[in-house]
From TrEMBL:
Stretches assigned to the ABC transporter domain: 5-236
Keyword Signal applies: no
Pfam families, per the entry: ABC_tran
InterPro entries xref list: AAA+_ATPase, ABC_transporter-like_ATP-bd, ABC_transporter-like_CS, P-loop_NTPase
Molecular-function GO terms, alphabetical: ATP binding; ATP hydrolysis activity
Highest taxon in the source lineage: Bacteria
UniProt KW keywords: ATP-binding, Nucleotide-binding, Transport
Annotated Gly residues bias: 332-341
UniProt-annotated stretches for the region Disordered: 316-341
Family indicated by similarity: Belongs to the ABC transporter superfamily.
Name of the protein this chain belongs to: ABC-2 type transport system ATP-binding protein
């Protein structure tokens, strides 16, 4: 896999008379490889937009190394700009123009064949409505028009900053389908968001940023596996007796009001066997898998974990240093490893 975006050690601080110096991005790393739909996740104000703006030369970085499609960015970005589509700042469209006219103007200005206009409208599902005025468009349609404007040059890489922002569930689903179809067509997509369910549904890889630093990166399933406690939820008629039997079998049990949480149950049949052998039959046995939301909340310290962000990393290219509160997951290996907390 070739690197499409590489960021190493990006630093950016803003200075203002009122707030003084504010560090927005603090030694951040990002690796996006060809063919990925890569989710860039972080809470509000964690540095996502600043990172993307710095990558594209819309704001100057204070330090770090960045490249896009193999060339140093932003210095040599113009060399590959024709292969990159990006929507980092919401484009404003003239309400009285149709989508077709809008894109035609952009195509002419950008030296793109006008024949691409219909194709781009088709790609975002606006072909049938392309001759309507933009002011009559829904927010979702405007977002899709924005994506169409980035697709005009038929890019290899598409960078989208919060494309689902402000969309209703139907609009979010349209955006998701659009990204999937682009990825199927071979476009590498980097999409920032704080809508975690969306990212989990669309993206194969993820990088999580918190307070300007990367706290997790890798394949979504590997990042999630690093947080799998192998817990199962058990419902049974005699919970107290069941808890005692399970503890005697060496399994940690946390009683809840209407069920038991049993840890270290990577093989849930152990639980049913221990209980069944004593005549206790389970009514429900559900393995609990972490989702991106719970992992995100834990990593970004927004879920009641006041500890410093830890790092989960499925990418060998940026194996974090030892002894810095890091969890390092080798590609393809689940489970927690390395220095934890
Ligand atoms: N032009 C600017 N001047 C001063 N501070 C800024 C500027 N742009 C961003 N910041 C600050 O940098 C930090 C990171 O902001 P950034 O917009 O990159 O975060 P974000 O992750 O994109 O957030 P959101 O999801 O809310 O868009 C914030 O504290 C923000 O206030």
């Amino acid at each position: 896999m070739s690197a499409v975006i590489e960021i190493e050690g990006l630093h950016k601080a803003f200075h203002s008379v009122r707030h003084g110096r504010r560090v927005a991005v603090d030694g951040f790393d990002l690796l996006v490889e060809a063919g990925q739909i890569h989710g860039f996740l972080g809470p509000n104000g964690s540095g996502k937009t600043t990172t993307l703006r710095a990558l594209l030369g819309l704001v100057g970085a204070d330090g770090g190394r960045m490249s896009v499609l193999g060339v140093p960015s932003p210095r040599l970005l113009p060399q590959v700009a024709g292969r990159v589509g990006a929507i980092v700042e919401s484009p404003q469209f003239f309400g009285n123009f149709t989508a077709y006219r809008t894109l035609r103007l952009l195509a002419l200005a950008g030296g793109v064949p006008v024949s691409r206009v219909d194709e781009a409208l088709e790609q975002v599902g606006l072909r049938d409505r392309g001759h309507e005025r933009v002011k009559g468009y829904s927010l979702g349609m405007k977002q899709r028009l924005a994506v169409a404007s980035a697709l005009l040059k038929d890019p290899e890489l598409l960078i989208l900053d919060e494309p689902a922002n402000g969309l209703d569930p139907a609009g979010i689903r349209e955006m998701r389908d659009l990204m999937r179809s682009l990825a199927a067509a071979g476009v590498t997509v980097l999409v920032s968001s704080h809508i975690l369910g969306e990212i989990q549904l669309i993206c194969d890889h993820v990088t999580i940023i918190s307070r300007g630093r990367r706290v997790a990166a890798g394949r979504v399933d590997e990042v999630l596996a690093g947080f799998d406690q192998h817990e199962v939820l058990v419902r049974v008629d005699e919970p107290e007796r069941a808890a005692q039997l399970l503890r005697e079998a060496g399994l940690p049990v946390t009683p809840q009001p209407d069920h038991l949480l049993v840890g270290q149950a990577s093989d849930p049949t152990v639980v049913s066997r221990v209980l069944g052998e004593q005549g206790l039959w389970v009514r429900e046995l559900t393995p609990l898998r972490p989702d991106l939301e719970s992992v995100f909340l834990e990593l970004t310290g927004e879920g009641g974990h006041p500890t410093l962000p830890r790092q989960v990393d499925g990418s060998s290219a940026y194996a974090p240093g030892a002894g810095d509160g890091v969890i390092n997951l080798d590609a393809g290996v689940g489970g927690r490893r390395g220095g934890d907390e």
